[in-house]
Amino acid sequence: MCAIFYMERNDLEDLNNKDKQLLIVCSHRPMSVGEIARTLKLSPPSISMRLKKLEEADLITIEKKGIGKKTFVRTKKADKTLKYIAELLRGIKKAGGSIPTKDLINLIKWILTNLFLILSLITNS
């Protein structure tokens, strides 16, 4: 799966191919600027410039953490995915741990559809 499938078509219209590639790379797991630069064979300053543009367009989240202030990038869809899962789990807990069959089926379909993204987020958190 790639970020292009997670975004609205109009979100991508103004992006060039390098920016689209950057979104695809970032959709799999949070990455540092250096990792992105090596993957796309671009310079770190070029990646930083592109990331700033994508952040200003509200397509990604940039989070600086750790020693050396590594910059980690996630697509906005990844953020929404985590929030959605948390809301579902809170709802199940409030309902006493049970969920209607129809809702459970929809949840399972949604998880299967987004499994790659969910697994990458869980393993890279």
TrEMBL record:
Protein name: HTH arsR-type domain-containing protein
Gene3D superfamilies reported for this sequence: Winged helix-like DNA-binding domain superfamily/Winged helix DNA-binding domain
Pfam families given in the database record: HTH_20
GO molecular-function term, one example from the UniProt record: DNA-binding transcription factor activity
Domain HTH arsR-type intervals: 21-90
InterPro entries associated with the record: ArsR-like_HTH (IPR011991), HTH_ArsR_DNA-bd_dom (IPR001845), WH-like_DNA-bd_sf (IPR036388), WH_DNA-bd_sf (IPR036390)
